Amino acid sequence: MKILAVVLILVMVSSLFAACSSNGGGGGGDSDASPAASPQGDAASPSQSPPPSSSPAPGLAAPDDDAGFDNVLTGELGMYDADYDYFANPRYRVHYIILNFSGLHQTFVNAFTAWATLANVEFTGHTEFGNDVDAYMTELPVIAQMHDGVVVDPDQQLYPRIKEILGELGIPWMGGMAMPQDLSQPGFPLIHPYVGFDQDEIGRLFPYHLTQMAQHQWPGVPLSEYGFITVDHSTVNALHMRALGALNGFNDATDPDLTAFVTEDRYFVADTSIGLWSDIEIARDVVSVILTQNPRIERWLVFALVDTQAQGAALALDDFGLADNSWVSAFGGDGARLMWDAGQSSAWRSAGASATTTFGEPIFFALYAFMRGYTTPEEIWPEWVNPADGGVYANRLIPFHWITSDNYRQVWAWGDLYGNSNLFPDYSREGLTRDSFSARVEIPANRTGRR
User: Fold this and answer.
1) 194: which of 188, 246, 318, 364 is 20 to 30 A away, CA to CA?
2) Contact indicator for 272, 232 with CB cutoff of 8 Å
């Protein structure tokens, strides 16, 4: 099959590598409105990717063990400080421990690799466990004790026990895509700082984005001819919140053309929770069911929570001969980048994406600040604490940008420029500056500080 052929091969190769050796998210991140300018094998012998060859409040000096060094952090706590001499410090070892590897996790691996080079950190790569929870929890303390700090990406339900284990060992850590919440407690409070997105806000933005893209692409076609599918994964809270946000976006819209999707029964949910959220074929199957049941609709707008769901949805639309009249968009975008780089095209036409380096920066440098003893999980980023999350730990948002095949290279090239990295050397930086896109999100009103 021509559509997505190269991308699927790349995804399968990545999965095979993950199984033998090694995309929620990991919303509310600010987005740029313009679609053109800028419309997260063996468990007993886990594999690792090859190692690569936070700044406290202004004026915060190095800890006592650095007496004699004129090495003062002056930048923002938990972010890269270009004026700080990281090479005057010990070289810390950091590892990334993943329950079930996907392309989204590779984005973090790339980001941590880039930042580690600047921060004099030995990033020893990643280990993944093929969704084997028992193996993950068994090996977690073993791997952690070989490092000065770790980033973890488990199932959300594992976070309370992970916090206990790493706390007992005294190993600093940060979570990756999944929010570190205690799902057994009312309100699902945060139990550690989180860097990511406002999931509800992400979902709310996609109905507007997709309908605008459809009107731009097919200006003579009324929205009443389209059906809308949200590809959900209802058993993962962070992902499910994005799906609920999309429905909220329709229900709260003031435009009758948007509310009509719900009132006229043209809004559908395809739930991939019968399997893994990262399974392309499951997404293909559940979207195909909706297409089969609604043959009267020949144009579709599809919101996929992650890249693999977008790939599956695009395949389903192609199977039914509907790809040319439909628009799929996902939150993630790295899979779309691979597709466009390979010269492929499909119904997957856009994504909400974060540049690789900006995605990983606060996670990496918060961990660095913990390892240095500059701050604690309970103290970092007080201005980012939301009482709705428990009122103790920060929930820091990062930006994303709308990408299409026309502008995606600019976004990732800018990420390289911003992070002083060279992850995408073939992407031109001509005309770009560090200010071409936003690397920060304005603190929202609901972040009212610690109680």
Assistant:
1) 246
2) yes
Q: Per residue, what are the HEC states of 429-442?
A: CCCCCCCCCCCCCC
Cα–Cα distances in angstroms (integers) from residue 220 to residues 152, 225, 324, 371, in the given order: 48, 11, 15, 58
Residue 70's pLDDT is 46
Distance CA 193, CA 153 (A): 14
CATH number attached to the domain at 5-20+199-354: 3.40.50.2300
Measured distance CA(447)–CA(444) in Å, rounded: 6
Query: Rounded distance, CA 4 to CA 2, Å?
Result: 6
What is the identity of the amino acid at 369?
Answer: A
Pair of tokens at residue 384: 């980012």
What are the boundaries of each domain within the chain? 5-20+199-354
The pLDDT of residue 300: 98
pLDDT in tens, 121-163: 999 999 999 999 999 999 999 999 999 999 999 999 999 999 9
pLDDT in tens, 227-276: 999 999 999 888 999 999 999 999 999 999 999 999 999 999 999 999 88
The structure tokens listed for 315 are 């395949």
Q: Where would I find the beta strands (DSSP E) of 308-369?
A: 327-331, 348-353
- Quote the CA–CA distance of 55 and 364 in Å, as a whole number: 11
Contact 172, 179 (CB under 8 A): no
303-308 mean pLDDT:
96
